Amino acid sequence: MARYLIMAILAIGIFTQIPMLASDWLKTNGYLESDAVEAKSTQVSPNGSQSSYHQSSVKRVGKTILKANKNGHFFTRAHINNKSIRVLVDTGATMIALSYDDARRLGLRPTRSDFTIPVNTANGRTYFASAKLRSVRVGRTEERNIKATIAPEGVLDITLLGMSYLKQLKRFEISNGKLVLEN
Questions:
Q1: pTM of the full predicted structure?
Q2: Pick the CATH number of 34-182 from 2.60.40.1120, 2.60.120.650, 3.40.50.720, 2.40.70.10
């Protein structure tokens, strides 16, 4: 009987830790971010039309630390125009490159004639559309009015958070499997 009681106590102890461990794993792998902010602002699409969305009127200033996954990549959630988008931080990308699906989620709908920016990818040359993002926030670091591109449908599976965001920060540094973002 005592053995069952000890096993029950151990099981309860283990099961109380599972939500915290799951939450940490989700944050580390870019599926979850804890702090979201809302207030009123305006979004401008590539064709110039405007629509309302919610966003903080105060730019966030702070420091965010991302942990690399087992392959050394930095996946996280970015709040782009106050919508949560899963991104891969890519220091080799000149600009933020939105996947076609993520751009649509943000309300950006370029026409076929908007795809005029030549881009060399691993699969050859293609053409992206231009966009300007009202705000991009990763954790506690936020920048405004960031240039971006939109990939044609089927070219990118995930949005790349490139240098058009990173170079706006006061600093970014990769060391010991961690990426530090600070503004």
A1: 0.69
A2: 2.40.70.10
